[in-house]
Amino acid sequence: NISDCFSITSIYPNPFNSKTTIHFSIPSQGKIFISLYDLGGNKIAEIIDDIFYSAGEHAVELDIGHLSSGVYLYTLDTGS
Prior knowledge:
Blueprint: E1 7-8, E2 19-26, E3 30-37, E4 43-53, E5 56-63, E6 73-77
Antiparallel strand pairs: 1-2, 2-5, 3-4, 3-6
């Protein structure tokens, strides 16, 4: 069962222009942090900062129309 493990999907589409969705699954409830980086490793934005999520599958839509079109990377941290 996918909700029994930690998983995160690739950003699609990437490169993206203004909107994309991040799908992730966590096995237990907890705080989540998602950060967005450019290809140079510079942190561009905190997408989710210390928000509590329940166990299971989740999706977060990003509206980053204010950023240049291009390829970005992201990290997901559960704090543990």
